[in-house]
Amino acid sequence: MTNTQLLKIAEDFGSPVYVYNSNVISQQYKRLTSAFSSVNKVKINYAVKALSNISILKLMKTLGAGLDTVSIQEVQLGLTAGFKAEQIIFTPNGVSLEEIEKAAILGCQINIDNLSILEQFGTKHPDIPVCIRINPHVMAGGNTNISVGHIDSKFGISIHQIPHILRIVENTKMNINGIHMHTGSDILDIDVFLYASEILFETAKNFKNLDFIDFGSGFKVPYKPGDIETNIEEFGEKLSIRFNEFCKNYGKELTLAFEPGKFLVSEAGQFLAKVNVVKQTTSTVFAQIDSGFNHLIRPMLYGSQHEIENISNPKGRERFYSVVGYICETDTFANNRRINEINEGDILAFKNAGAYCYSMASNYNSRYRPAEVLWHNKEAHLIRKRETFEDILNNQIQIDLKPKKAKI
Fold first, then answer.
1. Residues 372, 20: contact at Cβ < 8 Å?
2. Does the record carry Amino-acid biosynthesis as a key word (predicted)?
3. Does this model's pTM top 0.90?
């Protein structure tokens, strides 16, 4: 998309606004499937939590993806988008047995990550196929909040508890049809991922009726020019060889599954915000925009860096700015960042805004959540309206707080 097209979107739909490019999503999907083209059965389950707009889910369906879900509401979104239940894997953490049973009754693939629920579910529903999420005790990921495969993580069943799993499976006679792991996000070292994969292969040998092995995801995408990223082509070549070798020894052709979210949608998204004020202090020049961490929390939550471009003045002289929001507490997107000269009214574009951005937005400070626009077939399509004051009041119940008159 060109700056001119982005500025037109900001003009037509207002700011702030999220914009997603369907062509980039399609390219990323094809890149991932091509990396594993030597494996006969590959299943890409898009991680709904990354970006859950129903139009994005429908786009994933046209590409041939399934869905990876973590809540019954995400399951319902997937069904509404036209996915069949068997195309959806349900991988929650810490939810009730009742919620898991709801997904199972609908017909989703169930993925269980703790011994207690595994035993309870297996006792009540021994005939329903279940995938088991293993914690390989491998530290991977770009931030402690998104590294989920290490020994202190709340996710998965420890590899040291394999005997406990086998005992439960034997006692309940339940059907284990898949093994799964997810070590974390922003994985750069493919050797670490391959090491964790060997642990998963070793675990899989304990189960004789598997249909698939799910290797999670967490591939790193570039966040700025020249940034490093996961070499998905090299990883695909190496893991494919090992996977095909395992299937041959296992005696059955299994499905190789992944559940990418960020990899598919991060680079497809841009967040457009208008500069309200350029504020010079004794030490800093602030560019204060018409948004805050209520719309884009990742820089404050994870310390993540989003490249920021002044699309209103892309050829202007570069100066140093701290880009901040309008929330009434520390609300910083970038500190002392080189950006083309900014004037009040300019539109700034935040790159890599497709994953975990709108989906983590809130109404903090009673601000409206922004609109979402999909750039598809060279046209801008509104896929979510900007909220209104009526949306803020929706579901609130105003009660009568007048003092009651004393009875005489």
1. yes
2. yes
3. yes
